[in-house]
Amino acid sequence: MSFSIEKGEIVLIVGSSGSGKSTLLNMIGLLDHPSNGKIFIDGVDTTTLDDNKISSFRNKKLGFIFQFSNLLTDLSVLENVLLPRQIGGTDGAAEKEAIDLLKAVGLEKQMYKRANKISGGQAQRVAIARGLINHPSIVLADEPTGNLDSVTSETIVQLMKSMAKKLNQTFIIVTHDRQHFGQVDKVITIKDGKSYEGEQPSEMEVLV
Ligand SMILES: Nc1ncnc2c1ncn2[C@@H]1O[C@H](COP(=O)(O)OP(=O)(O)O)[C@@H](O)[C@H]1O
Ligand SMILES: [Mg+2]
Predict the structure, then answer these.
(1) Where do the domains of the chain lie?
(2) Which of 1, 16, 17, 23 to mutate for ligand 1's pocket (most ligand atoms within 8 Å of CB)?
(3) pLDDT in the model for residue 200
(4) Which CATH superfamily is domain 10-206 in?
């Protein structure tokens, strides 16, 4: 498969279960290594990085949102958002930025609650704020609404879209919830090991 994504785009990756969506996302996210091919992020071929460089590249350039928010339940909401920032050393601006992000995702009243005292939808909002805290080049989201009811899914989708617009933030999102997203910049469909740009087989242009 071959495709490119521009800064600020919201890109959906769709395809049947088992088609390799998570595998693709994990390779872009440097959590998995391709046996073949190259992946360029900000001009760097990430498939050539050694283990040390992989960790720092991942932490600096990539934000992650998973199906289950994976919050640390002993920490507060605010502390969870700050975690990725602390891996690279603390800085004074971090807390203010985390608070601003939590306000932007509508959680100003929940900031000091423990992460196990909030709802699933709120936890996904925290995960979005956490994914954005390091100003990543790309936020990668694997089925971010997969564990939410449809009303909550809708608000999470709209939140990701509005944050993408406001911050000119690139999002690559694996989803089976295509209809909730409405208009996006690009849809990549994986079918039988190939990627296609577009949604219906008739509209699809084979991307090698
Ligand atoms: N290109 C590939 N080559 C080899 N195995 C693959 C490839 N893509 C996916 N797989 C395997 O197929 C299975 C399902 O892939 P996964 O990425 O979890 O699919 P999805 O997220 O679309 O449901 C996994 O076991 C994965 O290792
Ligand atoms: Mg998957």
Answers:
(1) 10-206
(2) 23
(3) 57
(4) P-loop containing nucleotide triphosphate hydrolases (3.40.50.300)
